[in-house]
Design goal:
Layout: H1 29-32, H2 35-44, H3 47-59, H4 63-76, H5 81-93, H6 97-110, H7 115-127, H8 131-144, H9 149-161, H10 165-178, H11 183-195, H12 199-212, H13 217-229, H14 233-246, H15 251-263, H16 267-280, H17 285-297, H18 301-314, H19 319-328, H20 336-346, H21 352-368, H22 372-387, H23 394-407, H24 410-415, E1 426-430, H25 437-445, E2 450-452, H26 458-467, H27 482-495, E3 505-508, H28 517-523, E4 528-533, H29 536-544, H30 558-578, E5 584-588, H31 589-594, H32 596-606, H33 653-659
Parallel strand pairs: 1-3, 1-4, 2-3, 4-5
Length: about 675
């Protein structure tokens, strides 16, 4: 998880010294402050002159002079509530909190319904750590004046600091209704929305805040977090780097940049930024969590466990660290870590994001203990929470599948046959998530001439570079020509990482590329395409049991998941009907489990390479693996995942009803 920089420290923004003030008229300061005016007012003993002059001096930054004028006003009028309030504000800023409290309380004794004084006293109590008292004063200020922007803003900040994001968000929104250009309120709302997983909304507010305050390091850091969650890694890294240019010792930005670089495979740079973050702030739990992920991806599970455990020690309710540790650990009944997570799950004050991580972690932990019914209860809860965070347009998603099949006909593929870039280097491993693609990549990457590339986002990026100026995809594809196809192919190849010595092929195992098989055939006609399959219900339940870092929004509701799987199956049947023989290799996970060597030889032969026995020792191959299967592929192949869904059968009726006749009577009957 990325580190979200907190909103700015609580303070009253705007005109705290002039709100509701007797006789105040903006722009009259110079007139009031003329020597002649002063002589007349002082002779008449008018405290308003000193009060307004104090406001003028305060606005000019002459704080000591302003305080003297408020005190002078109180000589003439001891029950001047506004002067007590504004003098209290200055004393609070000077660190004289007891004196400030005395003036705020005196103002409220004079005017019990004085909203500004309640708001300012709330601010002071918040800075003292007396959160309950602060909330009481903010809420009283809002009872008296529901349009008190400062009270809304500061109450929101206090709630956000307590992790009460759901309650904080409407107060940030109210502050912005009153002042749409309140940069810090946009920042606070953006940070709160980020914590709640409402990424698109968060990005919009953070972008607006940055327009208002482009030199704000926290804003750049938080906007980078939102962009990363949207898959916009390059833009995100640029914002993290900008934050560090503005504030080189910005621990959050070092943490975030390290996490972003790790996601791009730039491990050494990533680790350096994460270590720098911990040098600056040893209490940064997020940095430990990210270092744990790096260690896990590299197969250093002991070090990963140590980092996750350290993160949890710093932040006991750190949901993501609990989730990550649960993936590495085998739980037994009575486990103290299991008990700690169950206690967290019972809390009602956890943010949605923390709660869903805890429930996913508990589902795995309780499954380890042999209680699938209770495990499934946590899975249902976790997925419901996640589904509530995302906007998944099922109609649009399934319509895209149908449109792709309609456009990529056999005639179209035949018309463009062999017109793309002729490189044979790419090997695309694709299919539904959790269908065995990481295992297949690991087998292939164990061959001395094949490089494992992981889940590369390059294919769609390369196509977008050419197609962006045309009418919508996929309907624009028939208008392409051979030159455009070659440009897309060359653009894709140019984005691939450098090959290590001796490597001639590279695996791109982005599962969702099954949507792009037609494109692959057009612009990289000699690329290999390996389609991984698994029992439909095992595939879907494995998806349902995982929290994906991004995308795959159809996996968090059983009925939606079943309908999406049907659409995927229909599209794969279409590809088989229009592709030439041998253009794609179907590989069933169950067949690999039953006959590892036979299927491994089949894979290497399909790739046109000589056999190498190292492909059978895939679990010994050292390379970063950044998927949910990073742990499994470090182990010899096992059979325990076959028909795993059976233990959940009584509680997954919506999925089974949608899959219907697609459920085979044997382990895998997937090939049409």
């Amino acid at each position: 998880m990325f580190r979200i920089a907190p909103p700015v420290e609580p303070r009253n923004i705007g005109v705290p010294y002039t709100r509701g003030l007797i006789g105040f008229e903006p722009g009259r300061y110079d007139i009031v402050a003329t020597p002649g005016g002063r002589a007349t007012l002082v002779e008449n003993g008018d405290p308003s002159y000193h009060y307004l002059l104090g406001n003028s001096l305060r606005a000019q930054g002459r704080v000591a002079d302003a305080a003297a004028q408020y005190e002078r006003a109180l000589v003439f009028k001891p029950d001047y509530a506004e002067a007590h309030n504004n003098l209290g504000g200055i004393l609070n800023e000077q660190g004289r909190r007891d004196d400030a409290v005395a003036h705020y309380e005196r103002a409220l004794a004079i005017r019990p319904g004085y909203a500004d004084a309640h708001s300012n006293l709330g601010l002071l109590r918040a800075t003292e750590g007396r959160a309950a008292d602060a909330v009481a004063h903010y809420e009283r200020a809002l009872e008296l004046n529901p349009r008190h922007g400062n009270a809304h803003y500061n109450l929101a900040l206090l709630m956000a600091a307590q992790g009460r994001m759901t309650e904080a968000i409407p107060h940030f929104e109210s502050a912005l209704e009153l002042n749409p250009d309140h940069a810090n309120a946009h920042l606070g709302l953006g940070a709160a929305l980020l914590a709640e997983g409402r990424i698109t909304e968060a990005a919009a507010h953070l972008e607006r805040a940055l327009e208002l305050n482009p030199a704000h390091a926290d804003l750049h850091s938080n906007l980078g977090v939102a962009l990363m969650a949207q898959g916009r890694a390059v833009e995100a890294a640029a914002h993290f780097e900008r934050a560090l240019a503005l504030q080189p010792a910005h621990a959050d930005a070092h943490c975030n940049l390290g996490t972003a670089l790790a996601a791009q495979g730039r491990i050494a740079e990533a680790a350096a930024h994460l270590e720098r973050c911990l040098d600056l702030d040893p209490s940064q739990a997020n940095a430990h969590n990210s270092l744990g992920n790096i260690c896990k991806d590299d197969g250093n599970f002991d070090d990963a466990m140590a980092h996750y455990t350290r993160a949890i020690a710093i932040l006991p309710d750190y949901g993501e660290a609990h989730f990550n540790r649960s993936e590495l650990k085998r739980f037994r009944s009575g486990d103290a870590d299991l008990a700690a997570m169950e206690a967290l799950a019972r809390r009602t004050d956890l943010s949605v994001n923390k709660a869903l991580h805890i429930h996913f972690a508990l589902a795995k932990a309780i499954e380890d203990t042999g209680d699938p019914a209770r495990s499934l209860q946590h899975l249902h809860r976790a997925n419901a929470l996640k589904r509530g965070q995302i906007a998944y347009d099922e109609v649009r998603a399934l319509d895209l599948v149908r449109r792709i099949a309609a456009v990529f006909s056999r005639d179209l593929l035949d018309r463009f046959e062999s017109q793309g870039d002729p490189s044979p280097a790419p090997i695309f491993v694709l299919g539904m998530p959790r269908s065995g693609s990481t295992l297949i990549e690991q087998i292939l990457a164990s061959h001395p001439r094949i490089q494992g590339g992981g889940e590369l986002p390059h294919l769609e990026a390369a196509a977008d570079g050419v197609l962006h100026s045309r009418a919508g995809y996929p309907e624009c594809v028939p208008s392409l020509d051979a030159a455009a196809l070659r440009r897309i192919g060359q653009s894709y190849l140019s984005r691939l990482p450098p090959f290590a010595d001796g490597k001639v092929r590279i695996v791109d195992k982005l599962p969702g590329n099954y949507l792009n098989i037609g494109l692959i055939r057009l612009f990289l006609p000699n690329a290999k395409i390996i389609h991984t399959m698994r029992h439909p219900v095992d595939t879907c339940m494995s998806c349902y049991s995982k929290l994906f870092s991004s995308g795959h929004h159809y996996t968090y509701d059983l009925a939606e998941l079943g309908r999406f799987y049907r659409g995927y199956r229909d599209l794969m049947a279409h590809w088989r009907s229009v592709l030439p023989p041998g253009a794609m290799l179907d590989v069933a996970y169950e067949d690999v489990v039953d006959d590892l060597e036979g299927q491994a030889r089949r894979l290497i032969d399909y790739c046109g390479l000589p056999w190498d026995d190292r492909c059978l020792s895939f679990h010994e191959t050292r390379r970063p693996v950044r998927t949910a299967s990073a742990i499994q592929v470090r182990q010899p192949i096992f059979r325990s995942s076959l028909e795993r869904w059976r233990k959940y059968e009584s509680g997954i009726a919506p999925l089974l009803d949608e899959l219907g006749e697609l459920i085979p009577t044997r382990n895998c009957d997937d090939v049409a």
